[in-house]
TrEMBL record:
Family matches, as PROSITE patterns: WD_REPEATS_1, WD_REPEATS_2, WD_REPEATS_REGION
Assigned keywords, A-Z: Repeat, WD repeat
Keyword check for Cytoplasm: no
Pfam families reported in the protein's UniProt record: WD40 (PF00400)
PANTHER family membership: F-BOX AND WD REPEAT DOMAIN CONTAINING 7, WD40 REPEAT PROTEIN
Chain positions of WD repeats: 10-44, 54-96, 103-144
Keyword Transmembrane recorded: no
Designated name of the protein: WD40 repeat domain-containing protein
Length: 626
């Protein structure tokens, strides 16, 4: 397993902040990130957080949790499938933290951890749906305490040792690991991604994908339903006196309610990534798409501290007038000519939004962006806003321009047809049962990939499922109106040759191949060459760019791809420039232009670095201004 090498600067993280946790006395804050590190901050002066020291994992870090008894112990959980336990000195700027043990026998990415009240045992929940118990003194596996049918997303342990787990299957489970057979379950109509026990242990708060928080008894009877937002509620944390609780939602807001469910405050900042919230000493810490956490005064709902710099992690690409557009976590679209002569092309920074740009589509002399905040923007070539939608109820990870519509796919599975000029909703299609991760034109409609494991083609209505993967589908690509390929977290790429049915009303898969990817989630896919002998490109969380040659007449088993190049982080997105070239972006900020030679081999033609391009653009602006 290769190690992330994003080289974060001294002032913060080099990628979005995934989790936040206050030390029990409130003096320090631990944050973790997609950059593979955990950063400890001195927050004794909450308006001026000071970075102290950094801990490292091999892959992105999903969770941090302080020990409630041994308050100098910190557990960190990673996509490298390990949980580490560290001893953190009171002054880690003068004494280094010590790694005490590594719980390294997990079978999938660890999403969250929670300490048992004895301060020795730790509950870990992971992408494979399992909730496992470990003794951190010995590193020994102590048993399985529950399982979910889909990703287990969060765990919380009460004062009395009750373990609550929630998952994308909509199940909430509570058990006492010391009392076999004590499990009680509650099933929700929506995915559940967050949970937190009140400090008294009398109330469990859960956050649902439909924007609702439920307050439950330890036996999972409903106390109260609280409507938070029109988009998914993601994280929840209680104030120390249990008089109020804070909720992070996918509308880019921090919501604060009293214990009776009455709204007290709503704090909006498009830079927030509220998949994590923590409360201590009247302060709320919130995750961020930028380089550090947000700190907010709980009672007044006023900002105390904000991150200092954006990260230009690339999420989407498109081409407009010969320029490659790259949509970034910073909300900026970086535009440059990938074919310009010389090593330093002309670069433009188009600050489209404060919210991360998750998707892009180009049309003539205009382009569209879909954002994490749930808006779609229509912009001219200079990035000036022409029109914007009302919030679509969820982040927009996919856009596609087809016929007389702009189709937007959202985190909640909606397929929404927008008028390309006004961006008013014109039609709403049959939804996926999971987030619509990718949309591309195909025939007179489009192909779609979603976390419900399916790849489908058609229009907004009457869509046909082509195939199903063993796990969520991250990306879809098409070629020549005849070939569709999809990349999945099940470590495979499926590629199919399609023909119209004799009646011409539906698409049929006449050839299909399953291509073995690396032993990591395959994040993005592109197709080059000729539909009769296509070349498949795929990028993975193993940092690799891989290629396969497809022979429709050869069905001699599963095929592994050839490694073309490697990044310093996962490969995030691809865009086909023409039949023989593609742009490939990594979360390390590298952009590769790759091309297909006459023998069907793929070679890197040019390399760009987004941070360098952004710096060059800023220097050009300063030179003009001076």
């Amino acid at each position: 397993m290769r190690t992330i090498d994003l080289r974060p600067g001294p002032a913060g993280h080099a990628a979005p902040v995934t989790d936040v946790a206050f030390r029990p006395d409130g003096s320090q804050l631990a944050t973790c990130s997609y950059d593979g590190t955990v950063l400890l901050w001195d927050v004794s002066r909450p308006t001026r957080p000071k970075p102290l020291t950094r801990l490292h994992h091999r892959r992105l870090v999903n969770a941090v949790q302080w020990n409630p008894v041994r308050t100098d112990l910190l557990a960190t959980a990673s996509a490298d499938k390990t949980v580490a336990v560290w001893r953190i000195p009171e002054h880690p700027d003068t004494r280094r933290p010590t790694l005490l043990t590594v719980l390294a026998r997990h079978t999938d990415d660890i999403n969250a951890v929670a300490w048992m009240p004895d301060g020795h045992r730790l509950i870990c929940v992971s992408e494979d749906g399992r909730a496992t118990l470990w003794d951190t003194r010995t590193g020994a596996f102590a048993g399985e305490v529950g399982s979910h049918a889909a990703h287990c997303m969060m765990v919380s342990v009460s004062l009395d040792g009750l373990v609550a787990t929630v998952g994308e299957d909509g199940m909430v489970a509570v058990c006492d690991p010391d009392r076999p057979g004590s499990t009680v379950e509650r099933h929700c109509a929506a995915s559940v991604e967050g949970c937190a026990w009140s400090h008294s242990g009398t109330t469990l708060a859960i956050t649902r994908d439909d924007g609702v928080v439920e307050l439950l008894t330890p036996r999972l009877a409903l106390r109260r339903t609280v409507t938070v937002a029109q988009t998914a509620a993601r994280a929840v944390a209680w104030a120390e006196d249990d008089a109020s609780f804070a909720v992070g939602a996918y509308d880019g807001c921090l919501h604060v309610f009293d214990a009776d469910g009455r709204r007290l405050h709503r704090v909006h900042d498009a830079r927030m990534w509220p998949r994590s919230v923590a409360v201590a000493r009247g302060r709320v810490a919130v995750g961020s798409f930028w380089n550090g956490p947000h700190l907010v005064d709980l009672a007044r709902a006023t900002p105390l501290a904000e991150p200092s710099a954006p990260n230009h992690g690339p999420n989407a690409m498109a081409v407009l007038g010969g320029e490659l557009l790259v949509g970034c976590d910073s909300g900026t679209v970086i535009a440059f000519d990938p074919d310009a002569d010389g090593a330093a092309p002309s670069v433009r920074l188009l600050p489209v939004s404060d919210s991360p740009v998750l998707s892009l589509a180009a049309d003539g002399e205009e382009f569209y962006t879909g954002t994490y905040a749930g808006h779609v923007h229509r912009c001219n070539a200079d990035g000036e806003l022409i029109a914007v939608t009302e919030p679509l109820g969820a982040p927009v990870p996919s856009l596609c321009r087809v016929a007389d519509l702009l189709v937007a796919g959202t985190y909640n599975g909606a397929l929404i047809g927008l008028d390309p000029s006004s961006l008013a909703e014109a039609d709403r299609g049959e939804p996926h049962a999971g987030s619509v991760k990718s949309l591309v034109p195909f025939g007179d409609g489009f192909a779609s990939a979603a976390t419900d494991r399916t790849t489908a083609v058609g229009g907004l209505h009457g869509r046909a499922t082509l195939w199903e993967h063993g796990n969520l589908v991250n990306s879809v690509a098409t070629l020549g109106g005849r070939v569709v390929a999809s990349a999945s977290r099940d470590h495979t790429v499926k590629v199919g040759l399609l023909e119209r049915s004799p009646a011409g009303e539906a698409w049929e898969v006449v050839r299909r191949r399953t291509l073995l990817g690396p032993d990591e989630s395959v994040k993005c896919v592109a197709l080059l060459g000729d539909p009769d002998s296509p070349v498949v490109l795929a990028g993975s969380y193993d940092f690799g760019l891989h290629r396969w040659k497809v022979d429709w007449d050869d069905d001699n088993g599963l095929r592994s791809g050839r490694l073309v190049d490697e990044f310093r982080q996962g490969v995030s997105c691809m865009y086909r420039l023409d039949e023989r070239r593609a742009a490939v972006a990594g979360w390390d900020g590298q952009i590769l232009i790759v091309g297909l030679d006459a023998d069907g081999e793929v070679h890197v033609q040019r390399r760009f670095d987004l941070d360098t391009l952004a710096r060059q653009a800023r220097q050009s602006l300063w030179a003009v201004a001076s």
